[in-house]
Q: What sequence folds into this?
């Protein structure tokens, strides 16, 4: 089953960079595919934001 929770887009200070918060319920799931500090590709596809591992 797909783990689903509400995250948030945040901005810190005056920078244009945005951060995506990933809820703990999703991040601690055994199927969560990312590790802390890992670089990822971020892609806009229509109204979706896709985050994927860099091979």
A:
């Amino acid at each position: 089953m797909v783990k689903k929770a509400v995250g948030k887009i945040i901005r810190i200070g005056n920078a244009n960079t945005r951060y995506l918060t990933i809820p703990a319920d999703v991040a601690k799931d055994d199927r969560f595919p990312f590790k802390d500090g890992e670089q990822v590709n971020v892609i806009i596809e229509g109204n979706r934001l896709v985050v994927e591992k860099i091979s």
User: Anything to note?
Assistant: The longest helix spans residues 24-27. The helical segments are 24-27. The radius of gyration is 13 Å. The chain has one domain: 8-53.
